[in-house]
Amino acid sequence: MRPYLAVVRDSFHEAFVSRVLWILLALTTLFLVALLPLGIIEQAGSALRDEDFLNRDQLVENIVAQGASKQPSPGRRIWELLDDSNKQVLGRKPNDPVEKRRRFFSLVRPLQTMLARRDFYRESDWVSVKLSSAARSLHAKGLKNLPSDELARFNRLALEAAYPDEIGPIPRKQIQLAYFSWELGLPLPVEPEQLYPAMNQLLVITLGTLLGVAGVFVAVLVTASMIPQTFEAGSADLLLSKPIFRSWLFLAKFIGGCAFIAINAAYFIGGLWLIVGLRFGLWNERLLLAIPLYLFLFAIYYGVSALAGIVWRNAIVSVVLAVVFWLVCWTLGTATQLVETLSLNPRRLVTIVPTGDTLIAVNQSDLFRWDDSDGNWEKILVARADAQLPFMFPSRLAGPIHDRSGDRILAFKTAMPGFSPFQAANRLLIGKRAEDWRRTEGVNVPDGAFALLMSPQGEVLIVSPQAIYRLEGDLEAKQQDINVFGLHIPLPEKGGRFADVGPKVRMRPLESVAIDPQTGTLALFDGFRLALFERTAKGAYRQTKDQSFERKQTGEVALGGGQVFLALADGQIRRYDSNLKTGEPVASPTPSVPGALVISPDARYLVALFRSARLVIYDLGERKPLPLPIAGQGEISAVAFDGRKLLVADRLTRVTRYDLDKLAIERQWTGRMPLAEKIYRYALHPLYTVFPKPSDLNQTVTYVLTAKDAPLSGVRFDNGNNNTPAKLDVWGPVWSNLAFLIVVLAIACGYIYRKDF
Amino acid sequence: MTESPAVDVQNLQKTYRDGLLGRRNIEALRGVTFEVGRGEIFGLLGPNGAGKTTLIKVLLGIVRSSGGQASVLGRPAGNRLGRKHVGYLPENHRIPRHHTGNSALAFFGSLSDMPQREIRRRRPALLAAVGLADWGNTSIKKYSKGMLQRLGLAQALLHDPQLLMLDEPTDGVDPVGRSEMRTLLQELKAAGKTIFINSHLLQELELVCDRVAILDGGKLLHQGPISELTTRANADVQMVVAGSESAVRAALSPTLLAEVRSVGVDQFEVLLKTNDQSVVDETIDRLRRHAISLVSMSRGRQTLEEAFLEILERARKNS
User: Fold this and answer.
1) Mutating which of A8, A17, A227, A241 best tests the B interface, going by the most B Cβ atoms within 10 A?
2) For residue A727, what pLDDT is reported?
3) Residue A29 has pLDDT above 50, yes or no
4) Which of A14, A234, A245 sits opposite B80 (nearest CB)?
5) Residue A391: per-residue pLDDT
6) Higher pLDDT, A221 or A721
């Protein structure tokens, strides 16, 4: 091995003597030094964040009402501190969602400024308000003496005490991003640990851009000459006359080139790791795993460059071919992703609704029924004039559910979370079998509606983060409205309506909602809190149990048979009894983020569909996974129960029905393949599979850094949650790229073995 | 058991493929056969494109032969273990520019599987032997062409090879350096090493080689000792005689092809253009009969260059 180690060592020697290495190291040092002053300052929690507002309209109304009153109150104090222009906006009562939004922000923005004022809290205005113990202890120190961050916290605590139904509690601490002592942006009302996922994402982006693109390109430029120079006339003769194997010489030189880049990558990532650890307290040792990953990414391009270097023995040709290879990979990857995103994913079935003898399924935006005579999916719920505004916020379809009593399908469209908390007046969409599933519109859906559910008693329920609603009266009684520039503004309701039948829910934007198919008990999960709402004899709902989590969790909830199941991002499925006491966890062999959790009507089976698009069925009676081989694992996008039958959607539009008693497939519905899908399946995808996917290594880096599956294109699950099932194979790119690298190096070794120098 | 020759080449052939899809064949070696004995200095001569470098590369396994057989130190040509005992100085070699003299020797010594300790032990003496004693720690970027050539020779000698293959070793080396190199080669020969030199500089080869081979157009035209090549049977006979001019001219047969030139008082140089020894004997008898003294007599020698050109010309005429 001595000769080959000498070649590797010589590459290090060459690197250290080279000016390029020192220039790269100097640039890296400059970048890291520039980054060093960036850090976070922990402050007492005082921020007002978007998700803290539990009921925006109510908050505005309360403050406007208190402002108009002569009685001292917190609202009156706030009103006093507002300027006239904001008061003017707040004085209006708009129905238009855009105006509502403007009105809300004309209160919130000044309110955020007021929290810094030492005269915001006036004891006489807060007489009727009971301050929390934290606020009282701050008050006891004397407001004049409090440092600015503690004063802001006190004001924030006083505000939430005054409006407990409208404003959620603030964490004890918040963090402020700073560069040296300059504060950057607004403080974030989170603990530093809560910032880490976002920081990890930022690191992924930084590494992906600086190392994955620019770094690799520079590295290929710098190292492109190493192999051609080794095998050029005069140099090759000298080396090949020594008692060494040619192929090993080439491989040693290749490893030497990689070593050059390893020094740079290790310095950059190691430095970043130290800075992030020292300045942000994020000691994520997984970041160091990015060193071999980026080295591997470089090795793929360098492999191509080295092969070209051997054949043509010209550094320029090596660089050009490496760039051409990158372009081909990029084009193929982009084309595949575009076809998947624009053509395939919108067609992927995300909800299955069994309706007796008709199978109904939903993709990203439309409903379909299976047409036996045509052997294909037929679009339903199509209105004659299905007009939409050209620039709508992205929306998702809640439901659909099957209303057996009227043999009809019900659904509604709602804004995607994060886009607009205010929605245009939304109507319930109805499709009746008797009318060949033609779309009609029904009553208005309450603001902020999240999930549409059917209770075992046959009632149609809507759940929002603020309330539980039940449909009363005729759901088809279309409310009158006036049309202003395409926006439907409803007139006072007549006929059917969704009536509030529960207590104040007071939850943050919901993550998941489930209903017990036997009792009608509701389980709501908002990431911080899991709450159970029991149905009373009169059909109203009352909150029975509540479980809080210290930090925000991503998860899915299901309930049945007196048990609550909560699948969290760690892949574990927790089991609770009806009092939310923790029980034995359900065995979870797939450590992946859950996408959907569905329980069978008889509460015998629990199905977890993970973001890896894989599905596991648990036999809750036997307390172990059901040994039923499921077709299309890795491409499953929806799951539903039809009695003791399990319906599974995979490969975009294929639905398979399994008989859980016989543990066998009962029937399969496979829709026809359109041309785009044929091109994708028989040309693009095989090419993409065979070709290396260096850019896909970013997924692996994301996974390595965050230990989470990164979501891909937008598809949601049938329980109303907007989580995305990601057909994600984290280590797949590593294996496919490794195979490619081995093939390239083998070709190069074969060529060099046969070559006359 | 007799020791195998240092180099044994039998009917060696090499055809390069060139052009689009390799459809054009270039015959670089056309059935070359020769041997190099152990301990001798062997020179390979030939014009540009004769196939000399190809032959060396085939012997070292850098180029594959198309036919025939060749062995080096008793092992098939190109054998990796055989190369362990061969030192090679290529023509226009290129030592990576990031090295110093010392680090270059350390690198090439490691490639020959030498331990670092051994390299460090041999390095100073070797650098001194090639005239680079004070240049070991200097970057080779500062080396002249001749110095690079000396360093190339040092790397070829570092692992104490049994066979040294030198392709144009004195290229770029000054006359003093050439002289030192010749001395070194003689010392190596004395130490029992075999040296295979490939060079255009025929005068240099003439001074050091025991045997030479002449290659042209991939064919071996001649091989043998230097003396055999330069001492030719058909060369002129040169005599210096003393006597009167009239007697000398009278003694020489009018039919004999001879040139007479005065070289002193009653001394003449006579050049007999014949390779027939009986004519030479008869001419001596006739000179003696005319009382002319024979001061000296010798058969004329060719330089290696003259012999080389003559052989080349004859071969080209024949072909």
Assistant:
1) A241
2) 44
3) yes
4) A245
5) 40
6) A221
Whether cis (ω within 30° of 0) applies to the bond prior to A400 is yes
DSSP A334-362: HHHHHIIIIIIGGGS--EEEEETTEEEEE
Do β-strands B194-198 and B163-167 pair in parallel, antiparallel, or remain unpaired? parallel
Q: Could you read off the pLDDT of B149-181 as tens digits, one per residue? A: 999 999 999 999 999 999 988 888 888 888 888
What is the distance in angstroms between the Cα of B54 and the nearest Cα belonging to chain A?
10
Chain B residues with CB under 8 Å of A239 CB are: 111
The per-residue pLDDT for B253 is 66
The verdict on a CB contact (< 8 Å) between B111 and A7 is: yes
Work out the minimum CA distance from A307 to partner chain B, whole angstroms: 19
Give Cβ neighbours of residue A186 (< 8 Å, ≥ 6 apart). Answer: A47, A112
d(CA A297, nearest CA chain B) in Å: 27
B107–chain A nearest CA distance, Å: 6
Q: How far is CA B220 from CA B10, B166, B169, in A?
A: 11, 19, 22
| DSSP string for A435-446 | TTT-EEEEEEEP
Per-residue confidence band for B188, with pLDDT thresholds at 50, 70 and 90: very high
Subunit contact A2:B110, Cβ cutoff 8 A? yes
B63 vs A7, A242, A756: nearest CB: A756
* Least-confidence region, from A153-167, B105-119, B216-230: B216-230
Q: Which residues contact A690 (CB under 8 A, 6 or more apart)?
A: none
Q: By the 8 A CB rule, do A359 and A376 touch?
A: no
